[in-house]
Predict the 3D structure of the following.
Amino acid sequence: SAKGVNLGVTSNTDGNTLDDYEEGTHTVTPNSNLTLNSSYNVFKYTKIGRLVTFNGFTAVSSVSGSDTVSLSLPFAVSANPTNGASSSVGYCMTNYVNIGNAGLAAFAYTSRNYLNFYSVNDDAVWAILTNGHLGVNDEIYFSITYFTDS
């Protein structure tokens, strides 16, 4: 109780106390019918207060079906909107993935413990990435920052 680093104040007030800092790894769990290369399924995260930065690189070992592509997160996305929004968009880079003509984005919805990927198209609607867009040895690199309630 009442422990942490006080930021910009001389007394311990909850709103100005950094009481949580954590660095770690998270072994991602993919959606059904998608297997990741076990050498590339452990991602890194840093949690400062409620803010989580999660990044890594993965490669596909096997894939079938048309399931929506998703990867587990180390902490669930906040259910409590900050300025009206808790969902978060992250940056991606791919190698061989069949995506739209403007790239791929990682998206973590409010209250979920996983993220999805969306292909982005120039002057057109985005589309959720499915197993049908992936092949063996396809690679996805990404980084996303989001808020959590834990």
Notes: The CA atoms of residues 32 and 73 lie 16 Å apart. The chain has a mean pLDDT of 90. The radius of gyration is 17 Å. The chain is about 0% helix and 45% strand.
